[in-house]
Design brief:
Strand content: 25-35%
Radius of gyration: 17 Å
Distance between the termini: 21 Å
Helix content: 25-40%
Structural class: alpha+beta
Number of helices: 4
Length: 157
């Protein structure tokens, strides 16, 4: 079993020293779904939300979230992100699928940034639509792919 890296020899929380790691191109993709009433999804797709363009605002929020990850997650390193994409699309008749991909050239990966981007985009969809659908659910947040670094590539089966 691998040792957890965010603890020192005494078991205290510690930021990982990545100074000796090689700089490599790194990427990570995270996905999440927001499940809602079919009428809510139709409202979003038809552009009828009172707060405006739900997909556009959520995309921007996700990008901003990725850039602020180290401010939110205590032991994350601040990273020079080179690219963030956040894609939102109808998924069936009652859900929005969100996919966030983050890229960098650095000494540590961008999985947390991708997860944060997807999470913040999903929370924004909820916030913009909660007046018409309080029963929405955010489900299945996960890293589906990562590349670069010492641990190599990962693709969720």
């Amino acid at each position: 079993m691998s040792k957890l890296t965010h603890f020192d020899a005494d078991g205290h929380a510690a930021m990982v020293d990545v100074g000796g790691k090689a700089v490599t191109d790194r990427a990570a993709t995270a996905r999440v779904r927001v499940v809602m009433l079919p009428t809510t999804l139709r409202m979003i797709v038809d552009g009828g939300a009172k707060k405006g363009d739900v997909f556009g605002v959520a995309r921007l929020a996700g990008i901003m979230g990725a850039k602020r990850t180290s401010d939110l997650i205590p032991l994350c390193h601040p990273l020079a992100i080179t690219a963030v994409t956040v894609d939102l699309a109808a998924d069936g008749e009652d859900a929005v699928a969100i996919t966030a991909t983050v890229r960098t050239s650095g000494r540590t990966g961008v999985e947390m940034e991708a997860l944060t981007a997807a999470s913040v985009a999903a929370l924004t969809v909820y916030d913009m639509c909660k007046a018409v659908d309080r029963g929405m659910r955010i489900e299945g947040l996960r890293v589906v792919e990562k590349s670069g670094g010492k641990s190599g590539d990962f693709v969720q089966p």
